[in-house]
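seq as requested:
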Amino acid sequence: MRLLLLIALALIAVNTNTSANSASASGKTAGTEPPDTIFLNGDLYTQATPARAQAMAIRAGRILAVGTNDEIRKMRGAHTHVIDLGGHFVVPGFNDAHVHLEHAGLELLSVDLRGIRSLREMQQRIAASAKTATAGEWLVGGGWDQTLWTDGKLPSRQDIDAVSGQHPAVFIRVDGHISVANTAALKAGGVTPQTQAPAGGKIDHEADGQPTGILRETARGLVESKIPLPTPSRLRRAAELALADAARWGITSAQDNSSWESFLVYEDLEREGKLTLRISEWLRFDDPVSLLETHRAHHPADDPMLHTAMLKGFMDGSLGSRTAALLAPYSDDPGNSGLPQYEQGKLNRMAIARALAGFQIGFHAIGDRAAQMALDAFAEAERSAKENDKTRDFRFRIEHDQVITPGQFAQYKKLGVIASIQPSHLLTDMRWVMERIGTERAKTSYPWKQFLDDGIPLAFGTDYPVEPITPFRGIYAAVTRKNEAGTKEYFPEQKLTIEQAIAAYTTGSAYAQFAEKDKGTLAPGMLADFVVLDRDLTKVAPPQILKTRVLRTVVGGITVYVADQ
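C-alpha cells:
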C-alpha cells in the first residue's frame, strides 16, 4: 500500500478554495467546461438521490454530476481524466469526528505499547528503546492497557525502573487519562510523598506513602510538563505518519484535537500541497477568550481543507482508569465516583463567555455526572447567548457519551446536543464495563439506538490513537454490539442498521461540524471526497466488515491513496 503524494496534490487546496464559485448546491455550474475527471464503472452508495449510481464527474474539487456510465461519458472533454472503478463499492469519504492526530503520530515515533498482553512485554519494549536512547533522553510512549493482562494490575515505577536505566520515563495509558512514571521522572516532576495532586487529579501511593508512579488526570502534568517539547521537524514527521494512516483507511475529513504547534505544521503542509486530509482543528476550551479569538482569526474559517473549529473541554476521565465522573460510586470501587474536572459554577461562566464569543462548544463526558455537568453548562450558555441571537444554531456536542441516565436523553434533545461517539470503544470496554458500572447503569450505556430514536444526532469517530483510525471496527461494533471474535454481546437492542452506521460516519459527522452542505453525500455540488472499497458494506455479513480493504481514497477529486495490487 502506498500514499500518493503527487505534485497534483497541490490542486486540492486550489480546487476546494475555488469550488464554491464553480458549483452550486444544485449542481448547476458556471460555463460549459468539461469535468477534470470522470469515474466510471462504480457501485456508488450516494446517500442522496439516486441512492445508487455508476459514475460521477468532478470539476474543481466538487462533484459535477452523478449518473449512469453513459450519462457521465457524454460529459468527457479532450483533457478529462478517466478512471475505471472496476465495479467496486464507493461511499462518501469517512469523516472521523474525534481524533488526536498529533498524539497518534508521536506515538508512532515513540515506544509503542499498543496491544501488549503483559507487563513483561511492556518492559521488553521499553528496554529496547532505552538501549538506543542518548544519555539523559526521556523515554516516552503510550498505548498500554492493563485490562489486557492476565492479572490486570497497574504497572509501577519500580516496574519501569527495572528496564529504563538512567532515563526519566513516562508512558500514557491507551485512554490518555493516566500515566506511569519511573522514579527519575517523578523526581524531575518534584513528585514526593508530600506532593498534593492538582484539582481534578490523583497521585497513587504505596502503603508507606511513596508514589507508585501512577498519575491520574491533571496529576499527569506534574511529570509530563517536564518532557522536552517535540521539535517542529518531529511534529511534521508525526503529522505525515498520521495523515498516511488516515488516507490508508479512507478518512477524508477529521475533527482533530492537537496542539496549536501541530496546526501550524498542517498549515505548512497545506501551503506545500501535501495536506491529504481535511482537518477541523479544535481549540482548548480552557484558553482565554482573547487567545481563542486570535487563533480563530489566524486562518480563514471558510478554508475547506483546514480551519479552526470547536472548543474542546474535559468534564472527566475514563471508565478504564476509573476517573470518569459518575453520579454514584463505581460498582467495583465503592469509595470512588471518578474525578470531575470543573466546579459547575465556574464551568457555566466559562461556557457562557465562549458561547457569547460565537464558538461551538464540545465537552468530553464519559460518566453520567460528567454528562450532566456538560448539559447544565450548555443550558446556561444557550440561555445567555440567545438573549442576543434567538436564532443561533449552537450544535453543542458531548464527546463519548458512554454512561447516560434515562432522564438525560430528553435534555440532549431539548438542547440539540450532538452525541459524538466512538463505537469501537465498546469492543475494548465490554470486557470489563459491567464490573465498573453494574447492570442497571449499563442498560443505558453506549446507547446509540436510543439517541437516534429520541432524535439526537449521532456523529461517529474513533478517538485515534486510543482506537485504530479504521472506521470499519466502529461500523462493525455499531451493527453487532459484539466483540471482534463474535463471542460476547452487549445490550443488542442498541444495535444500528448498516445504513445508520455509515450515515453517522459521513452525514452525521458533517452535521456535527456545520459542513452538511459540503460533505457526507455523493451529489452534485458536494466536495468530491469518496472512498473505493473491496466489498459492499450493505450486503456482506457483519464479520466481513472487519476485513474491508480501502482500494482508493479521493479528496477533492484527487487520489491520495491507492492500495497495492
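The mean pLDDT is 93.
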